[in-house]
Structures are given as C-alpha cells and as structure tokens.
C-alpha cells in the first residue's frame, strides 16, 4: 500500500509519502512467519516528520524469534526502539534498547536492557538487567528470580551528580526477607524479617551511619518470646537512633527542597516548586513535633504518632496541589 499527499495553505506546505507492506505465512499449529514494514514520511515547512517500523516474526516448534525496530523523527525529538526475542521455550533471551535525542538535552536518554529465562535443576530461572542513562542520573537495575531456591534478588544503583548516589537492595527467600536503601553521605537504612513460622519469626529495622558503615544500630526490633504456654511479640524501640536519623533528615531536607525547586524551574515547571515548598513545611513541622514530649505518652508512641500525622499531611498537600 502506498499513498501520496500534498497540502499548501498560505506559507505552510507539506508533501508526504506513506507506504506499508505485510506478508504472512502460516501453517496451522506448526509455524507462523510474518514480515511487516511501515514507512511514513511527511516533510513540511516546520521540518521533517517520519515514522519507520519493521517487525519480523518467526514462530515454530524448534525456535521462536521476534524482531521489532521503530524510529520516530521530528524537528524536536527523535527516538529509536529495538526489541528482540530469540529462543526455544523455556529458554529465551530478550533485548530491549531505546534512545532519544533532542535539542532539549534533558529529554535525551539511553536504555539498554535484557532478560533471559532458562531451566536450572528442573526449575525456572529468570534474570533481567537494565541500564538507563540520562543527563542527571544513571540507573543500573539487576533482577533475578530462582524458582528452585524460591528466591528473588533485586538491586538498584543510582548515580547522580545532580542529586545523590542511591543504592537499593532487596532479597527474598523462603526463610526471610531483607531490604535496604543507602546513600554515601547519610548511611544505610535496612529491614530484615526471618523465620518460617509465626512462632519463630523476628524482624528488625536498623541503620548504619556513614562514619561507621560496618556497625548495625537497631531502631526497632520485633521477636516472638515465650509467655507461659504461649508466645507473644516483644517490640523494642531505640528512640535515640530514630531521633538521630530524623535530625540528619532535618539537616538535609531544606537542601532537597531547594534542589527539587531549582530543577523544576530549569524544566519550566511551576507546579513542583509549590509542592516542594509545601511538603518541606509540613515535614519540617512534623519532625520538630517529634522532638516534643507529651506527658503520659511513651517516646516510641510519640515518634510513631508524629510520623503518621506528618505522612497524612504530606499526602493531603500533594492531593490539594494536584486538584488545584
């Protein structure tokens, strides 16, 4: 299929050529072979606009293969996407690559990702990796699921000169779950849950300070302890560690707010500036309130009460700004 078009209105003129082609060869329940191509070109007074896409499919009992290529070009934005799947069930390898270029540098990005699946000891293993590169940050994601071990591991590393470096870790097995988030300047905040049955379960929320990266400091711990013929949960809180963590957040909260507002101005976005200022005010008041003592109420109860109230107010601020 091919078509041509032309339009001239005042000083505006455009002349385009649109074409598409597709072939299909199918043997019922045996194989499917398809080839498709789309080429749209529409140059005009404002510049070149074009869309080019190809898709090749080859599915049969011995192998399965899919290859897709897409390119969109315009005067202000150009993006390329390539997706490939190759293998024979259950062994597959998938690749997804995407990139964008633009005169507006902050709209540019590059994505390189892959995923594979295979059988190991009679059980499925799925692995995935992705690297997203942007002017302001680079994100590296690694994900692995092993059904033989009933495990899931997810690692995310973000490096950024505009903001800060962040590392996220998550691991789940049949006997427990652990997770953490860390930054070079602030340290680490982690969570652990262990135990196969409720009577043996124990959990803790802990931190590591940047000046002592090898020392764990428990913030909150929960464990099952015997009480007569039953077991009850014993909750222990370290209010000093929590307050120290909040103090560190207070010292950096204003910088975070200013950084977000500056980034919003650079992108020409007014909405995030007001949100950043409002959220900063709400969280600041909440953290200051967490320091105040209330007669007859434990320090741990005060801490969690103020954290919950602050979270509710922050969500309300975001909703109010979104409605406006």
UniProtKB/TrEMBL annotation:
Sorted alphabetically, the keyword list is: Lipoprotein
GO BP term, example:
cholesterol homeostasis
> InterPro entries under this entry?
Apolipoprotein_B (IPR052418)
Q: Would you tell me the Gene Ontology cellular component terms?
A: low-density lipoprotein particle; mature chylomicron; very-low-density lipoprotein particle
Q: Does the keyword Iron belong to this entry? A: no
Q: Which GO terms describe its molecular function?
A: cholesterol transfer activity; low-density lipoprotein particle receptor binding
Protein name per the record: Apolipoprotein B-100
């Amino acid at each position: 299929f091919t078509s041509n078009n032309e339009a001239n209105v005042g000083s505006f003129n455009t002349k385009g050529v649109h074409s598409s082609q597709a072939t299909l060869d199918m043997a019922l329940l045996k194989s499917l072979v398809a080839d498709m191509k789309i080429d749209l070109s529409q140059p005009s007074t404002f510049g070149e606009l074009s869309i080019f896409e190809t898709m090749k499919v080859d599915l049969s009992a011995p192998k399965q293969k899919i290859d897709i290529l897409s390119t969109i070009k315009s005067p202000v934005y150009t993006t390329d996407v390539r997706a490939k799947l190759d293998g024979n069930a259950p062994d597959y390898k998938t690749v997804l690559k995407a990139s964008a270029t633009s005169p507006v540098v902050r709209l540019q990005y590059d994505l390189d990702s892959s995923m594979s699946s295979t059988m190991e000891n009679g059980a499925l293993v799925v692995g995935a990796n992705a690297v997203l590169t942007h002017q302001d940050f680079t994100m590296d994601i690694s994900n692995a699921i092993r059904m033989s071990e009933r495990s899931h591991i997810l690692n995310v590393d973000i490096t950024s000169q505009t903001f800060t470096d962040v590392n996220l870790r998550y691991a789940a097995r049949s006997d427990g779950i652990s997770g953490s988030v860390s930054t070079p300047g602030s340290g680490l905040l982690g969570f652990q849950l262990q135990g196969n049955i409720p009577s043996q379960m124990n959990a803790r929320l802990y931190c590591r300070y940047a000046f002592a990266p090898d020392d764990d400091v428990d913030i909150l711990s929960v464990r099952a302890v015997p009480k007569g013929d039953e077991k009850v949960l014993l909750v222990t809180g370290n209010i000093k560690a929590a307050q120290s963590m909040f103090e560190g957040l207070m010292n950096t909260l204003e910088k975070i707010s200013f950084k977000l507002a500056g980034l919003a101005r650079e992108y020409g976005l007014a909405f995030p500036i007001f949100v950043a200022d409002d959220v900063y005010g709400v969280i600041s008041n909440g953290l200051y309130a967490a320091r105040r003592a209330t007669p007859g109420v434990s320090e741990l109860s005060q801490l969690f009460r103020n954290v919950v109230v602050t979270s509710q107010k922050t969500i309300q601020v975001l909703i109010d700004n979104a409605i406006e």
